[in-house]
Amino acid sequence: MHPSIYIALDFPNAEQTLSFVEENELAGSPVKVGMQLFYKEGPYIIEKLKERGHPIFLDLKLHDIPNTVHQAMKSLASLEIDFVNVHAAGGARMIEAAREGLESTSGKRPKLLAVTQLTSTDEMMLKNELLINETLENTIVRYAENSYQHGADGVVCPVHDIRKVKQACGSSFITMTPGIRFKQDEANDQKRIATPTEARNEKADYIVMGRSITNAADSKQAYQQAIKEWNANEK
Ligand SMILES: O=c1ccn([C@@H]2O[C@H](COP(=O)(O)O)[C@@H](O)[C@H]2O)c(=O)[nH]1
User: Fold this and answer.
1) Is residue 28 within 8 Å of 52, Cβ to Cβ?
2) Complex ipTM, two decimals?
3) How far is the CA of 188 from the centre of ligand 1 (A)?
4) What is the rounded distance in angstroms from the CA atom of residue 99 to the CA atom of residue 93?
5) How many domains does the chain have?
6) Residue 111, annotated ligand binder?
7) Residue 206: CB partners within 8 Å, gap ≥ 6?
8) Which ligand 1 atom sits closest to the C-alpha of 180?
9) 156 Cα: distance to centroid of ligand 1 (angstroms)
10) Residues annotated catalytic, as ranges
11) For residue 207, what is the domain's CATH number?
C-alpha cells in the first residue's frame, strides 16, 4: 500500500466494493468513497472499510447553505474518516461552517478539503457555461486562497495547478489531485489529466486514481505500477 495514493472505489454496492479490495489484496490501502457508493450503502460501507484498515476520503462535495453544510458535517464527523470535502464555490461562510461542524466531533477530526474546479472542467466550459471570465488557473488559485483563509486544510485540484496553489497558500496546504491516468489510458470524461509521475513531480500530496486501476485487466498490477511511478522520483 502507499499512503499518498487513494483508490476511487466507484462501485455500485458494498458487495462489489469489498470483493474488489479483497481479490486485489488491498486491505489497509487508502480509498476514496464517492456519491455512487455512499448514497447506496451509507455509513455501513465506511464501517466495513474501516474494519479492513483503509484510510478513507469521503468525497461527497457538499455545496449548500452554511447551516445545512454545518449540520451535515457534524454527522459526517462522527464517521471518523480521514478526509471530507465541499465545493469551494459555496463561499467563505459555507467553508467556515463546514469546519465548525467537523470540529464538533469528540473523536479525530476529518481534514476538510475544498474542490476548486473539477478536473472535468476546461477553459471553454468555465467561460461559456459557468460564465466565469477568468482563466481556470486564476479561478483555482483564488478559490484555494479563499478556502485556506476560511478553514480548509487543503484543496482538490488538477495536477497542473499545484505549484500556484502552494505558492499562494503555503507548502503545508494539502493538494489532493484526481484526473490521474497512466500514459496509455483514455481520459474518459476528464479534461485535465496527468500521470502519477507528473503528479509526483508537481509535488502533489495525494493522488486519486479510479478507472486506471479499477477497470484495468489486472487491478493489483495497476496499483503496483502507480506506486512504482510515485516512488521513482522520491521527494
Ligand atoms: O475534480 C475532481 C474531483 C473529484 N473527482 C473524483 O475522483 C475520481 C476520479 O475517477 P477516475 O476514474 O480516476 O477518473 C472520481 O470518483 C471523481 O468523482 C474527480 O475526478 N475530479
Assistant:
1) yes
2) 0.99
3) 11
4) 10
5) 1
6) no
7) 4, 5, 6, 30, 57, 174, 175, 176, 177
8) 13
9) 10
10) 59, 61, 64
11) 3.20.20.70
